[in-house]
Amino acid sequence: MGTSPRVAVVAALAAGLALPVPTLAAPATAPAATVGAGTHRTATTHDVTSPLEAQRTAAAPLPQFNWWDCTDEAECSTVKLPLDYDSPKGPTTEIAVARVKATDQQHKIGTLFVNPGGPGGSGVDLAMDSVLFLPPNLLERFDVVGFDPRGVGYSDQVKCFADLREQDLALGGFNVQFPWTEREEQDMMKSAQALGKACSTTGKPLSTSMSTAQAARDMDMLRKALGDDKLSYLGFSYGSELGLTYANMFPDRVRAITVDGVIDPAQWAGTEATSSKILDERLGSSAGSYKALKEILTRCEATTTKRCPLADEDPAAVLEAIVQRLRESPVVVHPTDDISFTLSYSSFISSLLGDLYTSDPAWHVASNIVLVRKLIDPETSSVERAAAGRAFLAERKKLLKSLQDRFADPTDATSPRGFPPRGFPYDNDLEAFSGVICSDGLHPADMSTWPEASATLDEQSPYFGRAWGWNSVQCASDTWTAQDEDAYRGPFDRRTVSPVLLVGNYWDPATAYTGAQSAAAAMPGAHLLSSDSWGHTAYGTSDCVTDAVNNYLLDGTLPAENLTCVGDIQPFSRDLNQDGLPISSSAAGEDSAAGEGKILPPIEPDSIVEQTIEQLQKQN
Questions:
Q1: What pLDDT score was predicted for residue 397?
Q2: Cis ω before 119 (30° cut-off from 0)
Q3: Does residue 471 come out as left (phi exceeding 0), alpha (psi in the -120 to 50 range) or beta?
Q4: What is the C-alpha separation between 42 and 429, in angstroms, rounded?
Q5: 208, 84 in Cβ contact below 8 A?
Q6: pTM for the model
Q7: Angle of the 345-357 helix axis to the 361-376 helix axis, nearest 10
Q8: The pLDDT of residue 407 is above 90
Q9: CA gap 367, 392 in Å, rounded
Q10: What does 397-421 look like in DSSP terms, one character per residue?
């Protein structure tokens, strides 16, 4: 996605109540299956695709590919798929697909589908970048395929406003990371209402067919058209929602599904009993963020100043003093005569969240706190403040580089990779993100629910409750009335023909570890791999996690029960050099922890981190 300031607050669930989705058929007996290089641990009994769901995809014409070479490694195509699978031969939508072909075609296992999250992330870009983060043994044995879900990226884009002028006038309230003052809350709700109404009118018909279930049906059609009997899949962050939705809709079509950074799909969708709760009350992302930050501050206090510059103080108290000052009013910083920037409470908290997304967040968090304290302290001399400002900008450059290395490159609508330019770019990031989450689940009806609910979250998970709570305001069902009647809202307890591997990171600041636990517990036969690692998702943070995922995708070998991997980079485990950097680490290259020249998978950041990247780019 792009980096417009409007992306600061987006996310959430369904518009109104979807029509009931039929439950899947009763368990059926199936023989064990041998796939590719090895034998999966295959259930002797498993659930099967419901007759209605089977009929939907069976009746649709298989898409026809028109591959062309779009990069040195990848080939691209667009395909037509049904806009509504209840009318499989009716109107269509165009889906963009990219493929990096297996280097050993003679011994190819099949296709590995990948998704970077979001929602709104480009599977096309992730597939093109697969040579940078996947190991040679996967690249040898799989064609790696990514597609941009309907409404997103290089696929047909959802467009809720007539033009950019109308869009900009409507969405000005989203120009903060999250609202802190009452005026900011009112402005955001006004813009959220405009967005919901626009996507429920001008955005049709695409806005009414953008649920994750539709992407799962599209993926099943692509799987069949590419000749795979069952699905192999690797999804990150929101990509876990797509993978788990597919597994529960098509439980007998699973070869090997691995999801990392797990969203519990039952909490994502919600129920009638929880429909009055805003999204983060169910998902607990703010709780995950606060848990990670609190642990970093605790470990800082327990070490020495050789490793954490705040170790001889109370780090939590230092942070709270900064927060209290910025809550009173923003601070304008002048690091040089010709550069100035504003530190607000919301921008500081979003930068802390950005720190937590890196693979070595402890150093970033500590450095952030130390420098901001100097910048806002009235006792700091003008010379010291200018020096602190320059150091702050230098540290922010390191963080920007780290986040840019970590996350997928935004789709450049003016010159997309391998696809024709779209002309003058219409920025549909917020509409694409919202089109998915506002279709997938249940939400409070009245937008006035959000101020109190997010404030309560902030009390439970200090600093991050508002940041995550306001992420779903545009989906209030009285405003977002566009409905996808074929959205899938459960059940999420299907037994798949081959087990699903879920990877949960203890200290993930976005997809809390509890989501992986509850999602794994709900699905019979599912396997949970835990990781004591840092940053968002775990693949690439240790050989333990990476090898376990690779082995499962290759031959179905699952990691040991109750295995917990430990990330290679742990908070304050290295001394600092004279420049305040961890020895044997370069902040610019710290996210290349995957080994053998590989990088961490370039997943899609959530809206708050996108806003942080935008903020950092403006400062630099």
A1: 72
A2: yes
A3: alpha
A4: 40
A5: no
A6: 0.89
A7: 160
A8: no
A9: 8
A10: HHHHHHHHHHBPPPP-TTS-TTS--
- Based on the number of CB atoms within 10 Å of its own CB, is 140 exposed (0-12), middle (13-18) or buried (19 or more)? middle
The radius of gyration of the chain from alpha carbons, rounded to an integer in Å, stands at: 23
Average pLDDT score over the chain: 86
Which structure tokens are listed for 295? 């642990």
Phi-psi map region of 610: left, alpha, beta (phi>0 left; psi -120 to 50 alpha): alpha
- How many Å apart are CA 326 and CA 345, to the nearest integer? 5
State the maximum Cα–Cα separation within the chain, in Å, rounded to a whole number.
76
**551: Cβ–Cβ under 8 A, 6 or more apart, which residues?**
557, 559
245 contacts 212 by C-beta, under 8 angstroms: yes
CB contact at 8 A, 380 and 389 = no
In angstroms, the CA 408 to CA 415 distance is: 16
- Pull the structure tokens for residue 441: 């689940």
Tokens of 54: 């089977």
Q: How many other C-beta atoms can be found within 10 angstroms of the C-beta atom of residue 148?
A: 30
Residue carrying the six token digits 């942070």: 319
pLDDT (0 to 100) of residue 588: 38
Q: Is the dihedral of CA 612, 615, 619, 620 positive or negative?
A: positive
Measure the N-to-C terminal CA separation of the chain; round to a whole number of Å: 20
Residue 158 has pLDDT above 80, yes or no: yes
DSSP string, 306-346: TT-TTTTS-HHHHHHHHHHHHHH--EEEEEETTEEEEE-HH
Nearest CA-CA partner of 12 in 211, 304, 217: 211
Residue at 207: amino acid letter? S
